[in-house]
Amino acid sequence: MKTTTSLLMLILIIGVSSCSTQTRCDPSPVSNSPAPMAHTITGNFSRIVVVRLKHGTDLLEGLQKAVEKENIKNAVILSGIGSLTDYHVHTVDNRTFPPKSVFMKDDVPTDLLNVNGYVIDGRIHCHITFTTEEKALGGHLEPGSKAFTFAIITLGVLDEPVNLERLDDYTWH
Q: Which stretches does DSSP call E strand in the chain?
């Protein structure tokens, strides 16, 4: 009995000491320490949600409504396609902190080539790539990008207790 108890204690100690920040065994938020060069987060998809946005729907608003309807806390935006009647994005416009943004907006028809990003604690951080007759553009999705024929966006919903809290925090460096 004493040997079994000692063995269980050893297994518990080894198991606890092997857990590092942001793995499945530690769902707590990232500490205030400096960001590591490569931060990893381990998790599994619990389900895949395919969202279809109809003509005239604002991509950001429609995606937010789908996230709320499906009770999604954290997810990876795996892909997206479609077409747009209008676009509104921003991109980084400098190389020093804090980052500055330049906004691009137009009401021209485009093909939506790609949608990717994350849902972080219910908040959408989404980037899109699209093309006009003359050029391909892309950036951080802003309100005002509207579906023309449709937009289809696929989300990989992450199991709890994955914590993406500081994933897109530019002050964590």
A: 45-54, 75-92, 101-106, 110-120, 123-131, 136-141, 146-158
Give the total residue count for the chain.
173
Global confidence as pTM = 0.80
Supply 90's token pair: 């921003």
Closest by CA to 148, choosing from 87, 104, 103, is 87
pLDDT digits (tens, 9 = 90+) for 70-89: 999 999 999 999 999 999 99
Q: For each of the domains in the chain, give its residue range(s) and CATH number, in order of start.
A: 1-30 (no CATH), 45-158 (3.30.1330.80)
* pLDDT tens, residue by residue, 159-169: 988 999 888 88
Cα-trace Rg, the chain = 21
